[in-house]
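Attaching the record inline, Q. Sequence:
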Amino acid sequence: MKGVVFLGERKLALQEFPDPTPGPDDVILEIKASGMCGTDLKAYREPFVPGVVRGGIKRSETPVIAGHEPCGVVVEVGANVSERRARVGQRVMDHHYQGCGVCRHCETGWRQMCVDGAIVFGSVDHGAHAP
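Structure, as predicted:
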């Protein structure tokens, strides 16, 4: 699969990545739209420095697919995902943070405040500027 990578200094590249596969608690989305916000623009405009912290978010050590405001259609679900949580063909939007799932913040829907540290899609792990 091809995905957009921000190289910094107003440069980007279309790079090849393996197709995603769902973990037991994951879903795979076919992306229909992926927005750009100020966080994306900073990563696009500033020099890319692996591991640097900007705005409280640590950049990945390796290139990741950019984009963290996605919506799309569920095309695959992990073994632990009930049909009540997500089903193939369902239209969804994705909140672009992943937390531990069990701390007080994650349990109340504030994954970006995860006690163990949140993963930010598009900055720390692959985002949505890809199919």
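Residues 2-120 form a domain with the Quinone Oxidoreductase; Chain A, domain 1 fold (CATH 3.90.180.10). The chain has a mean pLDDT of 88.

More tomorrow.
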